[in-house]
């Protein structure tokens, strides 16, 4: 079974940055290594390395700890722009759910 894109990715496109943002927005309670993020998003490690520093510089993700040789990173929920992204992601999902409910209601009425 093929994995379906999230509403966030469908709305903003399947670019590596959007996929990584979507991953961190979806799984915001834990920290992850670069390798885990690359594997879960399908973004190559080379591409991930190109965008990683920008996400850190913009304070969207932050290093939380080091386990062995792996640095761990988490969504930086303390930043207002990250909270706005979280709210936007939630509102997109809500809007999609409302559209699906309307489709179902129309089918039931027929």
Tell me the structural class: mainly alpha
Q: Going by CATH, what is the homologous superfamily?
A: Winged helix-like DNA-binding domain superfamily/Winged helix DNA-binding domain
Beta-strand share of residues:
5-15%
Poorly predicted ranges: none
| Beta-strand segment tally | 2
What does this 3D model show about the protein?
The chain has 110 residues and is mainly alpha-helical. It has one domain (7-109): Winged helix-like DNA-binding domain superfamily/Winged helix DNA-binding domain (Arc Repressor Mutant, subunit A). Helices cover 62% and strands 12% of the residues. The chain contains 5 helices and 2 strands; from the N terminus they run ααααββα. The protein has helices at residues 7-12, 16-26, 34-41, 45-57, 80-109, and strands spanning 61-67, 70-75. It has a two-stranded antiparallel sheet. α2 (16-26) crosses α3 (34-41).
């Amino acid at each position: 079974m093929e994995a379906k894109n999230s509403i966030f990715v469908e709305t903003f496109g399947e670019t590596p940055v959007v996929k990584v943002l979507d991953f961190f927005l979806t799984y915001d309670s834990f920290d992850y290594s670069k390798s885990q993020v690359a594997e879960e998003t399908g973004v190559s490690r080379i591409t991930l390395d190109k965008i990683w520093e920008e996400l850190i510089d913009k304070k969207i993700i932050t290093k939380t700890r080091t386990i062995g040789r792996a640095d761990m990173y988490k969504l930086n929920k303390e930043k207002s722009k990250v909270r706005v992204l979280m709210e936007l992601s939630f509102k997109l999902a809500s809007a999609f759910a409302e559209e699906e409910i309307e489709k179902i209601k129309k089918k039931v009425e027929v």
